[in-house]
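Reopening closed ticket. The problem is back. First fold of the pair:
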Amino acid sequence: MTSSSKTVVAGGIFSPRVMELRVKIHDAEYVDSAVQRIAQVLSRKIVEENEQRNVREKK
């Protein structure tokens, strides 16, 4: 591991990806978009499971 691949901050050593996400969570537009994506995925999953349950009940 080289010092260029990790960032040392108070409390530990973090990868560039973790540091990127730490910055993004302070961006309201990024957080709003992330919440919207999560809601879409969960909604789709709920609808799919409900449709599968309905198909099984009709058998």
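Second fold of the pair, where the issue appears:
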Amino acid sequence: MSLLRRWFDPIRSSWFYQKPIRKTVLSIDQGLSIHLRLDDVYSYLTVQQLPQLEEILVDELKPLKIIISSQAAEPPNAMSYLEWQNYCLNDAKILSKQHRFSFDETPEQPTAEALQQAEIILKNTPLRGQDFLYLLEDIFHMLWQKQYGKLRMLHAMASYHHKAQNFPERIFNDDPVLVSYFEIGGRQYHAVDDLLRLTRRLKQQKLLTDNPIFLINHIDWREHLISHAEALNEIQKLDPELDLYIALEDPISWLLLAYIKEELANYYNIHLKVYPLSYHGRDLFDWSLATRLSKRTEVTFTPFCRPTESASMQMAQLFYSVPEDQQIDAIYRILQAVWTEGKDLSYAPHFNEVLHELGVKTLFDQDIRKKLAENDHHCEMKSQPNFPVLELRIAGQNFVFNSLYRVWMIESIFSNVLEEKYKSENDIEE
């Protein structure tokens, strides 16, 4: 690692962490827009919140600008289109159950004919404001709940009685859109995952007329879903296991591992196992996002020194040089040294310092690259769009999910497992 990067990164990271980014006032000159795709399942979930959101917007942000794209962006993480489609459907089903969105039990992608009919209906309708948003929601219900008969009837009426409208708050284009997102003041917010963050920002700038109540079953950081002693004991007795596949140069790996180890592992008796991945270039990240997540999770994140590929290899060698039953504590210490103390583990004095702390007498002498490649292969088999990848095993069931945005699923799954257990016991008694 270059001397410039080794010494400048901690200074830069400290500056980013202390920078009062939350006090920035976002411009509302371009209003608030929502980007959708009719064939995007996250857009389907999002439109169910739009009438309520627009109702509490200040007049300066009305009407909410609706931008509907006909073009899908390339799937992430080298996933095939089919893999990405299946992932989105399964993920949306989980989100709908957690947050009580309307959703079909057996979702399918809408047909090309249905999508074309829906677009014509929306282009031709003279409805505006709240009336248009309710129509938009109904159209998405028809598309995603296979109500094609209703759609054909509306399409016939729209084609016969109306012509294409030209409203400034309703735009149709072919800009590539991966998943639905909001945009205000040049910033983008994922339409489901960042909805609460967006409403906090709007409230901070006094752009809402009432308190926003969205995603009512959201599990916040360091607030446990299960606190009743008997229920907690039931989960602990099930000995849940959690595998983490992490890119060592990814700061999100540190935030996620630290949060789970400090807050969830002992509390729920989770047996953790970590699988380091080969270098994926994730040291080029969004600094402001990572520092904001650090503050939300209450995991210390500065000053750090971004690992290069050589540093990642040294981190992996340290990890595999300790006994398996000590690896969780070891990876915690290794990532902490990098992401909170600015240690460059490709620099011999820093490496030897951590080596001594871990009590390592003999370094792992097998092929590190081969070991990481094996982990990469197993991780790829999970077909997830982002890192870190998590696999939770409990009560004979396997659950695979990814990223810091889905850590809440751990406790949600525990709650669902308990509910199924109690229901099964009641059925037996009856």
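Update: turned out to be a display glitch only; the data is intact. The first strand starts at residue 33 and ends at 37. The longest helix spans residues 408-429. Please close again.
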